[in-house]
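Now for today's protein.

===
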Amino acid sequence: MTLIKARTDWLTLASRGILFSLIWYVLTGGAIASWWIGVPAVLLAILSSTLLLPPASFIWHEFLRFLPFFLVRSLAGGADVAWRAFHPRMPIAPKLIEYPLQLPSGLPQVILVNTVNLLPGTLCAELGEQYMKVHVIDGQKDCLSELEALEQHVARIFGKSLNIIEGDQ
């Protein structure tokens, strides 16, 4: 285990410990007497979360750069879906797109899929080992490049670099 990896693991464990301790504090209203059960509960939560969601590098400044990207896409997508819903002819062209994933499995893929589901007009219908099937409201748009841009942003959050795919629909 390298020094950077060990430091990341300890930082992850410490941050989870702080998070779970704060949750316990809020749930108990700050009662000091509750910590006799709170300490084992927090330790069990740290252990469980580490087994279910192993530590991964997370670059906060990239996450902060991701937020405006997500907000702009979300607002534009919401406006597009609203326009289609209120248009007299309701111009939709639903399509199921298979998108090849480059992100490693685990938290990066989970963040990607959840983000796709939060964007208006898209829904991840299936997640495979190296692909995801996405239902889009307008299959005539260039959805693959939008998904690629989203995957690139998520990859940067986790310190990964991806190859740029020139995809056709």
Notes: The mean pLDDT is 88. Residues 3-52 form one domain. The first strand starts at residue 95 and ends at 100. DSSP finds five helices and three strands in the chain.
